[in-house]
Amino acid sequence: MKTKTKTLSLKERGLTNFESIMWVFTRLSALGMYALILFALIGALVMGARNNMNLADVMRWSFMPNVTHVEGTDLQDLEPWATPFWKLTASALLLLATAHGVHGLVVIADDYIVTKRGRNVVRLLSIVFMTAMMLMGLWIIWTS
Amino acid sequence: MGLKRDVSLSTGLRYRGPGGYLTFILHRIGGLGMAVLIAVHILASFIGGKLGAGINNIYENWAFQAFVFFCALFHAINGFRITLLDLFPKMLEHQSEAIWIEWAVFIPLYGLCLYVILSTGLGG
Fold first, then answer.
1. Percent of chain A with pLDDT over 70
2. Number of CB atoms found within 10 A of residue A2's CB
3. Residue B36, domain member (yes or no)
4. Count of the separate structural domains present in chain B
5. Residues of B near A (CB-CB distance < 8 A)?
6. In order of start, what are the domains of chain A with their CATH numbers?
7. Domain of B102?
8. CB pairs below 8 Å between A and B: how many?
9. Cβ–Cβ gap A104/B72 under 8 Å
10. Block means of pLDDT (10 residues each) for chain B, length 124 residues?
């Protein structure tokens, strides 16, 4: 190899291609989601999860820190769990997870749908599905 | 134009593959499972009312929760291995060891969650 990969510009590495960018996005969004999940887990413990929630409830909150996810627990005061701070955290997790997940569905579909027209239809449907999920999810988070 | 596969479905299902194959297919099942169940959950919560509550009651049933937890935990733990190995490709040499570590993390963690879900769901 005449040039080390590290010294190549983004363009030379081929990262201008949409699929390559999404390959990187899938990995980085996963790291972002781990950070948010860990953040929600620590937040739950700070807000009193240790005495009032079981392991499955804590995990459920961590994977999506929306107040409706802790309504069935022994927590007495749900107010700290419903602040705009947690709604913002939940929104960030929702947007990352939806983009990550819908792209994953497109990758799986591409393994079975091989015609150009079919793939275009999948992409169009994925954009509609992703937008709908994001809007509905945000509405649920901010109105619950 | 369809896909041309030179093996039958039964041969395909019997394929055991090298180390990463089981995790590859479980990662897909986990991702698809989450996509379907979470999309239905979001739709039901958005619709609300009796219908939404009815769908969410099914979703919150212990059997569904056990499956959702399997999907989410396996996808998250396996995804962490994929991300680490892809971002640090030199570690790919140790892929099979990484997969063993992954199972060593997943089995006890999922086992604990399953125990809690089942003991609560079955009247514990």
1. 90
2. 3
3. yes
4. 1
5. 1, 3, 28, 31-32, 34-35, 38-39, 42-43, 45-46, 65, 69, 72-73, 76, 79-80, 82-83, 86-87, 112-113, 116-117, 120
6. 17-143 (1.20.1300)
7. 17-121
8. 59
9. no
10. 66 74 92 94 93 89 91 95 89 90 95 90 68
| CATH number of the structural domain spanning residue B105 | 1.20.1300.10
B17-44 pLDDT per residue, tens: 776 888 999 999 999 999 999 999 999 9
* B11 part of a folded domain: no
Q: Are A54 and B120 in contact (CB under 8 A)?
A: yes
Q: Quick: pLDDT tens for A38-90.
A: 999 999 999 988 888 888 889 889 999 999 999 888 888 899 999 999 999 99
Chain B residue with the nearest C-alpha to that of A63: B72
DSSP letter string, A27-74: HHHHHHHHHHHHHHHHHHHHTTHHHH--HHHHHHHHHS--GGGGTTSS
Total residues found in chain A within this entry:
144
Confirm whether B23 is domain-assigned. yes
